[in-house]
Amino acid sequence: MDVKPPEDVGLFEALYSTRALRRFKPDPVDDETLFQVIDAAIRAPAGSNMQVWHFLVVRDEEKRRQIGEAYWETWSTYGKQYVDDPTEIDKLPRQMELVVRSTDDLARNIAQVPVHLFICGPDGAGGTVYPAVQNALLACRGLGLGSVVTSFHRGHMDKLGPLLGLPDGQTAHALLPIGWPSDRIGPVGRRPVHKVTSIDGWGEPWQYALDQPEQGLRSRWTGE
Ligand SMILES: Cc1cc2nc3c(=O)[nH]c(=O)nc-3n(C[C@H](O)[C@H](O)[C@H](O)COP(=O)(O)O)c2cc1C
């Protein structure tokens, strides 16, 4: 898919092509572009419209290095088998291989991604800040930026909280590494509607959905 200027990316095209992008060019992200991402993110709905989110942008090289260390610690535990023996990645089924390889690449290189955007809020308030996370992702898509929701930092808030100056009771619910992507944009593959939807009672099939193509309406919006 092409990277179009923001005004040319339609809403549904964005919904069907905003996938996890984990590899980035080293080029910086300018203030105007970053402001547009956050200004779109804050349009998200929030419980009682309390807007308890806080967006913490990290560009500082030394802080990104320390964030990268914490991120790597999680991946080298969670993805231990792949870190210990990278040839294990080659043996995975194709789709899984691509996801694990890009997850591993990001874990090795996250410190070099120009912007680390932490979406923060009170402990336990993840549900009310996550719509803003998705808005930020879609805004990135519209601007030709890449990003991915990440959470590997979450196990290291004891170290990252002080590094980022988070007040007590606040946590970083998501970390979006943001930059100009070197991976290809979209399209997004998912389990089809009929597998995840019931009618009038859990597990009751929806015949209309069963009659639709496995890829749903994706090709209407992405051409693929
Ligand atoms: C709550 C949440 C936490 C995630 N944490 C991570 C993470 O720490 N690292 C990572 O590389 N991807 C992370 N992801 C990204 C998912 O792996 C990704 O969205 C999913 O595999 C779909 O990818 P796709 O859009 O490319 O199909 C997270 C996604 C969500 C929603």
Unreliable stretches (pLDDT < 50, length at least 5) are none
SS-based structural class? mainly alpha
Specify the overall morphology. Answer: globular
What is the radius of gyration computed over CA atoms, rounded to a whole number of angstroms? 19 Å
How far apart the termini lie comes to 9 Å
Describe the overall structure.
The chain folds into 2 domains: 6-188, NADH Oxidase (3-Layer(aba) Sandwich); 190-224, no CATH class. 44% of the residues lie in helices and 10% in strands. The chain contains 11 helices and 3 strands; from the N terminus they run ααβααααβααβααα. It has a 3-stranded antiparallel sheet with strand order 1-2-3, with helices on both faces. The longest helix has 18 residues, at 61-78. The radius of gyration is 19 Å and the shape is globular. The N and C termini lie close together (9 Å). The structure holds flavin mononucleotide.
Characteristic terms for this protein:
224 residues, mainly alpha, NADH Oxidase, 2 domains, three-stranded antiparallel sheet, 11 helices, binds flavin mononucleotide
